[in-house]
Each structure stands twice: as C-alpha cells, then as structure tokens.
Amino acid sequence: MQQKHIYLDLISIHNLKVFFLILSIATFVASCSKEENQIIDDNEMGEVIAMDTIPYKIGAYAPFYLNSFWEYKNTEIVYNDLLYDNEPDSTITYRYYRQTILKDTVIANRTYRVILNEHFEDENFQTLKYTNTGFQYHENNAYFGLTNLTLIENTKYLDLEGASWYSDTTSSPYPGGTIYEFDKYSVIEKDTAVTVNNQIYDEVVIVGIHKYNKLDANDDFHHVITRYKYYAKDIGLIFTKYNPPFRKNYTELINTQIND
Question: Residues 47-99: pLDDT tens digits?
Fold first, then answer.
C-alpha cells in the first residue's frame, strides 16, 4: 500500500510539472501576440499605441521634423501720445521665443508632434522666462493645434484648400455676464513673396484671423481685431502681426534649423 501512495504522488508531481509548463507556454504566446499588436510608446504620457493609430505626417507649411527649431523676435510699440504717426513718443518692447520639436505623442489614437515653446528675456536666447508645450498635427493639407487636452479639441489654423473656416464658439464669465467668442479664419493670399528680416520668402500663404465676440447671448457678434499670420513653404511660420488700439505688434522669424 505504501508503494502505491508513492507512485500516486509521483504521478501528481509529474502532472503539476506538465501543468506549469503548459501555463508558461501559454503566457509566452500571449505575450508575443500582445507585442505584435501593440507598440509601447516611450513618452511622458505613457500611452499604448495601437496598430490603428493615425501616424504623424509632415506638412510643407509646418515642416515639424524632430529636433528642428525656429527662433522669433516680437516687437510691440505702444504710442503714448495716442497718435500712430508719432513714433518718438512711444515705448518699444522686445520679446524672444523659440519653438523646438521634441517628439511624438499619441492622444486618442492620433499622433501629435510635441512642441516646446521657450520664452526668453534676451536676444541671445540665454535668460529663460517660462516655457509651455503645444501639440500639432497635419492632415489633408490642413494644420491643427490641440487647444483642449482634457476634451481632445483641435483648432484648424491653416487650410490650403479652404477659403475660410471658423473656430468653435467659447464662453467665459466676466463681471456682470458672459462673454462669447469665436475666430473666423480666411486665406488672404497664396503663393506670394514677402520679405521678413531681410530674407525673401516665396510661396507664402497669408491667413487672417478675425476675432468676434459679444457680451450677452442675445446680442450680435462684433468684430474685435484681426491678426495676420504668414506661412512659407518648407519653412513654416515666418511673420505675425496685429494692431490693437494705439499699438503695433509683430513677430518675425530670425533663425531656424530644420532637420529634414
């Protein structure tokens, strides 16, 4: 009887070994299957990139190749005497910022380019004031920026095939009520040549961004201000300007390195 118990114990041990061997093989196969269908993206958000993720595509008017950068100088003139033609009585402020393409990240199954915006106090780009991050993608000759990370809302800022388009209307409280705003985008010119910082750029697209708002839901929208942005083919944004009351404000590209 004792020999029979020993024999049964040996069979049980053997069966356990076979069971764990099968379990190990099944786990290995499942792991391999998972690796074939998913790619783990090494980024700060830690997303899992599925095979159906929309890849990032380079656009000619925003050539956001990785590790490329653009450096800008912003000039703001405030006319203290309230006269636009009397520049000696004015205050001029200069600001400098750099855009650098860092990496790709995936949000809601779409690949965005991550852009680091660095703001500096000096023209040598040495004294950093603050930074922020942007997310952009390009699709079907249109260019988008992620404007709400929580709700995954994108705003189209350039469309080579459209004459005009609109942003969504937003609302925000102010003392005494609610202010409603939206932007109307319109292509002012295409394939034109402009000079910025003594550099001639060809095939430039000029976009006007017309801001409208109203202070009550029952009011009509009123035009507030228009900004203009200039995009050069194979370069990107080269110039921005807008003229609020008693001011002039413009930004020009002064240096770039595009690593295509």
Answer: 434 446 788 999 999 999 999 999 999 999 988 765 555 555 788 999 999 99
Residues 70 and 160 in one domain: yes
Residue carrying structure tokens 């060809």: 202
My answer on whether 164 and 90 are in the same domain is: yes
Give dist(CA 258, CA 235) in Å, integer: 8
Are 182 and 125 found together in one domain? yes
Total domains, the chain: 2
Distance CA 89, CA 85 (A): 10
Instruction: Note whether 35 and 28 are within 8 A (CB).
Output: no
Q: 46 lies in a domain? A: no
Closest CA to 198 of 254, 236, 143: 254
Q: What is the pTM of this model?
A: 0.77
In terms of C-beta density within 10 A (0-12 exposed, 13-18 middle, 19 or more buried), how is residue 201 classed? buried
Distance CA 243, CA 131 (A): 25
For residues 21 and 72, membership in a common domain is answered with no
Quick one: tokens of 70? 């653009």
Q: What gap in Å lies between CA 160 and CA 142, rounded to an integer? A: 6
